[in-house]
Amino acid sequence: MKTNKQIAREGVNAEHSAIRQYNRMLKQTKDPHTKKVIRHINSEERMHVREFSALAKHKDKEVKNTAKRSKTRYGTYGTKEYYKNIGKKGGKSRKRKR
């Protein structure tokens, strides 16, 4: 059986793989609408990387006591606010920087 930290690391690797694939797709199309959709999906994948990374840090007992808590779109990982918002459909809305 795998540890939660191992599962989180696998999640990070899977998301990085997806990001690379979407970047390849961006290079293969010239259609502006298709590019917009792919960029949006790619930004979601980057958010997933941050969330899996936060989970991995949280599960690492050595890092857990010394690392700063990671911020996600649902709030600071591991806080009551985070767990409250993660259960809501879609979590908190967040404006993207352009």
Question: Could you please describe the fold and organization of this structure?
Answer:
There is one protein chain. 11% of the residues are buried. The chain is mostly helical. Helix content is 65%, strand content 4%. α1 (4-28) runs antiparallel to α2. A two-stranded antiparallel ribbon has the order 1-2. The chain has one domain (4-86). A hairpin with a 2-residue loop joins β1 and β2 (75-76). The chain contains 4 helices and 2 strands, in the order αααββα. The longest helix is centred in the middle third of the chain and has 28 residues, at 32-59. The termini are far apart.
Offer a concise description of the structure:
The protein is mainly alpha-helical and 98 residues long. It has 4 helices and 2 strands, in the order H-H-H-E-E-H.
**Class by SSE composition:** mainly alpha
What share of the residues lie within helices?
55-70%
Question: Nearest-angstrom radius of gyration?
Answer: 16 Å
Structure annotation, total helices: 4
Mean pLDDT over the residues: 76
The proportion of strand residues reads under 5%
Order of strands, main sheet, comes to 1-2
